[in-house]
Amino acid sequence: MSLLADAFTVLAVLAGLFFLAAGTLGLLRFPDTLSRLHALTKADGLGLGLIVLGLMPQAGSLLGALKLLLVWALAMLAGATVGQMIARIARRESQ
Amino acid sequence: MSATLLIDLALAFSVLAAALWTVAARRAFEAVVGFVAFGLVLSLAWVRLGTVDVALTEAAVGAGASGVLLLGATARLGAQTLAEVRDQPAMALRIATGFFCALLAVALGWTLLNLGDPAPSLAPLAAANLAATELGNPVSGVLLAWRALDTLLEAVVLVLAVIGVWSVAPDGAWGGIPGDIQPPRRDPALRLAAQIIPPIGVVIGVHLVWTGAEAPGGAFQGGTVLAAMWVLAWMAGLVRPPAVSSRRLRVWVILGPIVFIAIGLLGSFLADGFLAYPAAFTKPLILLVEAALTFSIAVALVLLLVGPPKAAP
Amino acid sequence: MNEVTIFGLLAAALVGLGLYGVLTHAAPLRRILSFNLLGGGVFLVFGVVARRGAGAGFDGDPVPQAIIITGIVVAFAATTLAIALLLRIAELRQDGTDD
Fold first, then answer.
1. Do C34 and B22 touch (CB under 8 A)?
2. Of A65, B97, B221, B271, which is most buried, counting CB atoms within 10 Å of its CB?
3. Could you tell me the CATH number of the domain that includes residue C64?
């Protein structure tokens, strides 16, 4: 059981790291603000989500696991808000 | 080379890279972004040094609150740098300065690598006396019992900083509402976030204070989170601070230090001296001080972030 | 080599770098930033000393750790005051009432 949980953690965290790396690559390589934002918010949200999912079996308690989930939800909320605000300014400036 | 060593090296290089960027960046905005990154990576370094209490403080105050303050200042300054041509050192002087700063760094590094063994430590003493405070977190024990005087003075420094920030207000604006005159940007996305996040953030802030007795956390970390929630609502245009002439606001700012001093004086009569706690009431008194401090820290941080009044009352 | 060595050297480098920035930047905001880097280096020195004093079941000596927390908050208070003065000077320059 514990081996299964560990294997799940390794797989999920690795997948999360892949998406974070992809998001960062997009941030560095995409040509304009909107596509860079798109890469960053989407890929990072998924990447962090997978890492949190992977770490949940290691949290030791249900409360600890729920706290991890809360971290992800807050990061998503903040990321989406800031992404929206930056996009709005970028669009206004390009017009 | 072990995995933890690799992590430490990677962290140290990231901190150094962010610091170099902060010093070398061409524009002020870029430097501030570098500084916020510096604070965030440094807080991970604090975790590696085994002190989650400091890591939380660094992330909340060093990166979060400082970031809001410095980004706001950069936006307000715009293209103005206020740099005087006569302050720009000549190349030769810069090279000489760089040389001596490097020399200082080398000397300090050498000293830190050659500190005497065994290292001096108050950890055994702190451990031996922790039971008397009924706290589980030694750092909270130090902050609120053995070095309570430092913590009291720190709370007073926050009050003095608020007075200092207020006193740069233009004469005509004295007594007015602190912060900018123009309504903050009312972005619908920000408004939504400012309605959803604060209820959760307030719970997290209070949790950080409460858990600080047993685990990493405490009045400063929790107070900063509470202040951040209010500032978020302020930025979204949902709340306004009271005028600086408001007596209620002034009482809020000094409440923490006043409660701390009052309980300290109580110790002069009922216990071993100023800021000592009567043995039977140690934990309840510490919790009372922490609660009052948290509240005043949060109010003071909000006022420091919002800035001096800009318009007449 | 362990975390004490690595972060000790980092602390020394930050002190040197921060001091260089304070001394060579002409723009006050950049000096304030550099001063905070210098402060970060000094706190890290305390952190390394705390780590060396680990014992009695703690990961570090709690006394320097508590002093670092105090230091970070006081440094922030000083920074807000410096920024308030800076913004006020900028305002006065813009109004042309400074000279």
1. yes
2. B221
3. 1.10.287.3510
Residues 6 or more apart from B244 whose CB is under 8 A from it? B166, B169, B174, B175, B176, B177, B178, B308, B309
Rounded Cα–Cα distance for residues C37 and C46 (Å): 14
B217 at the C interface (CB within 8 A)? no
The low-confidence residues of chain B, meaning pLDDT below 70, are: 1, 181-185, 313
Q: Do A77 and B193 touch (CB under 8 A)?
A: yes
Domain boundaries, chain B: 1-79, 136-313
pTM here?
0.91
How many structural domains compose chain C? 1
3-state secondary structure B259-300: HHHHHHHHHHHHCCCCCCCCHHHHHHHHHHHHHHHHHHHHHH
pLDDT value of residue C99: 44
- Whole-number Cα distances in Å, A53 to A7, A58, A62, B172, B303: 13, 10, 13, 56, 39
Q: Which domain holds residue C48?
A: 3-95
Retrieve residue C37's tokens: 């880097």
How is chain A split into domains, by residue range? 2-94
